[in-house]
C-alpha cells in the first residue's frame, strides 16, 4: 500500500508530468565530418575533367564553361556522395567533409588513364572506331575510310587486316568508338590507381 | 467549421502514418528508413508512425528505380491510399535511376512518370535526418486546412 501511494505521489509531481508530455530527444545535428555533396572551395578549376572521369554515378558531375572559367557542378539527384571527385581533383577545387584533410595527411592521390581493348572474335575490321575517333581525326586528317593511316601518331589504325592500338595514352575517354562499333567489339575501360606520393613530392 | 478544422490540423500534425515501398533498389535506402525508427532518430517522437499499410497511410515513401513488375503495382498502391495523401521519393533512384540508369538495365526512372511526387530526398542513401526533415516539412503543406482547400 505504501509503495502504491509512493508511486502515485511520484507520478503526480508537476515536474514529472511536464517532462512526460514534452519529452523530446535533442535535435540531431549533422556532424562536421559528414561527407556531403561536394562544395566549391573557390580555387580555380583548370578543366582537366578528372572529377568527371572518376565519377561512378551517371550524370552526377559536369564541368561547365562559365564565361571565361571552368566550374564543376554537382547534381544532387544523381550524386552518390562517394567523394571520389574531391580526391581526384589535382587543384582542390571541390571539398566535402574531411576528405581533403585526410588526403593531405596521407599524401594519397589518384592516377587514371583509359585502356582500349578490342575483342578479335567480335571485331570485323570495318575501321569505324579508327575513323570516328575525334583524336585520330585531329592527328591525321587524311585517315582513310577503311581505318588505315600512314601516321604513327594515331591512337589506333587498321594494320594487316586487324585493329592495332598504338597510343592508348592519347585516348580522352569519349567512347565515340564504342558507340560506332557495330559489334561492340571495342571497349573503353577507365583505369584508376591509388598512388602514395613520396614526402618530397607532397 | 474552423474549430473543427483546427482540431483536425492539430491531430494531423502529430499523427502522420507512413508506408514505404521499394520498387527496385539496392535496399540501402530501406535501411536508412528503418534507421529512422531506431532510438537514435526515433521517428515516433514527431508523431510519425510507420505501418507499411497503404490503407491507413498518409505518406508514401517511394524507394528505388521502377522495375517493369512494379509499374502497375505502384499505381495500385497509390490508389489504395485514402485522401489526403502525399508521396515522397527517397534516394537518388526514384529521381534519376542513380547507378541503374545505364544501358542494358530494365529500370525506367523517374518515378514521377507513374505517381505524383510531392518531395524528393536526394542522396545515395540520404541521411535519416534528411528523410525526417522531408516528411516533417511536406506533411503540413498537404494536410493543413485540407478540407478548406477542397471547397
From TrEMBL, chain A:
The protein's matches in SUPFAM superfamilies, at most eight in alphabetical order, are given as: 4Fe-4S ferredoxins
Domain of life assignment = Archaea
CDD domains on file: MtMvhB_like
Q: Where is the 4Fe-4S ferredoxin-type domain?
A: 36-66, 70-99, 114-144, 161-191
Q: Which PROSITE patterns match?
A: 4FE4S_FER_1, 4FE4S_FER_2
Q: Which UniProt keywords apply?
A: 4Fe-4S, Iron, Iron-sulfur, Metal-binding
What is the protein name stated in its UniProt record? 4Fe-4S dicluster domain-containing protein
Q: Which organism is it from?
A: Methanoculleus methanifontis
The beginning of the lineage is: Archaea, Methanobacteriati, Methanobacteriota, Stenosarchaea group, Methanomicrobia
TrEMBL record, chain B:
- Which keywords does this chain's UniProt record carry? 4Fe-4S, Iron, Iron-sulfur, Metal-binding
Q: Which residue intervals define the domain NADH:ubiquinone oxidoreductase-like 20kDa subunit in the entry? A: 26-137
Is Metal-binding a UniProt keyword of this protein?
yes
Cofactor(s) required, per the database record:
[4Fe-4S] cluster
Q: Keyword Metal-binding on this protein?
A: yes
What Pfam families is this protein classified in? Oxidored_q6
The Swiss-Prot or TrEMBL record describes its family as follows: Belongs to the complex I 20 kDa subunit family.
In its UniProt entry, what is this protein called? NADH:ubiquinone oxidoreductase-like 20kDa subunit domain-containing protein
Identify the species of origin.
Answer: Methanoculleus methanifontis
Amino acid at each position: 500500500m505504501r509503495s502504491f501511494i509512493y508511486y502515485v505521489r511520484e507520478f503526480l509531481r508537476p515536474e514529472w508530468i511536464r517532462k512526460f508530455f514534452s519529452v523530446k530527444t535533442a535535435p540531431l545535428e549533422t556532424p562536421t565530418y559528414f561527407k556531403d555533396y561536394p562544395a566549391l572551395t573557390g580555387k580555380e578549376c583548370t578543366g582537366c575533367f578528372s572529377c568527371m572521369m572518376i565519377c561512378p554515378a551517371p550524370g552526377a558531375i559536369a564541368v561547365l564553361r562559365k564565361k571565361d572559367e571552368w566550374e564543376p557542378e554537382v547534381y544532387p539527384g544523381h550524386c552518390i556522395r562517394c567523394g571520389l571527385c574531391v580526391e581526384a581533383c589535382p587543384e582542390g577545387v571541390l571539398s566535402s567533409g574531411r576528405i581533403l584533410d585526410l588526403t593531405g595527411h596521407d599524401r594519397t592521390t589518384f592516377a587514371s588513364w583509359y585502356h582500349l581493348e578490342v575483342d578479335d572474335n567480335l571485331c570485323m575490321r570495318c575501321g569505324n572506331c579508327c575513323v570516328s575517333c575525334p583524336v585520330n581525326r585531329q592527328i591525321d586528317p587524311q585517315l582513310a575510310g577503311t581505318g588505315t593511316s600512314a601516321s604513327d601518331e594515331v591512337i589506333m589504325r587498321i594494320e594487316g587486316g586487324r585493329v592495332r592500338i598504338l597510343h592508348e595514352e592519347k585516348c580522352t575517354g569519349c567512347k565515340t568508338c564504342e558507340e560506332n562499333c557495330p559489334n561492340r567489339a571495342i571497349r573503353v575501360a577507365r583505369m584508376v590507381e591509388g598512388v602514395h606520393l613520396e614526402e618530397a613530392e607532397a | 467549421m474552423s474549430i473543427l478544422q483546427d482540431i483536425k490540423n492539430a491531430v494531423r500534425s502529430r499523427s502522420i502514418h507512413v508506408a514505404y515501398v521499394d520498387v527496385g533498389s539496392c535496399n540501402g535506402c530501406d535501411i536508412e528508413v528503418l534507421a529512422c525508427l531506431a532510438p537514435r532518430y526515433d521517428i515516433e517522437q514527431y508523431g510519425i508512425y510507420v505501418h507499411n499499410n497503404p490503407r491507413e497511410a498518409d505518406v508514401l515513401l517511394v524507394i528505388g528505380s521502377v522495375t517493369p513488375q512494379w509499374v502497375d503495382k505502384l499505381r495500385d498502391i497509390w490508389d489504395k491510399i485514402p485522401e489526403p495523401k502525399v508521396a515522397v521519393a527517397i534516394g537518388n533512384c526514384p529521381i534519376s535511376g542513380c547507378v541503374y540508369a545505364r544501358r542494358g538495365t530494365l529500370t525506367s526512372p523517374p518515378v514521377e512518370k507513374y505517381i505524383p511526387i510531392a518531395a524528393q530526398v536526394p542522396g545515395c542513401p540520404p541521411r535519416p535526418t534528411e528523410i525526417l526533415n522531408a516528411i516533417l516539412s511536406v506533411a503540413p503543406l498537404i494536410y493543413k486546412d485540407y478540407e478548406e482547400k477542397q471547397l
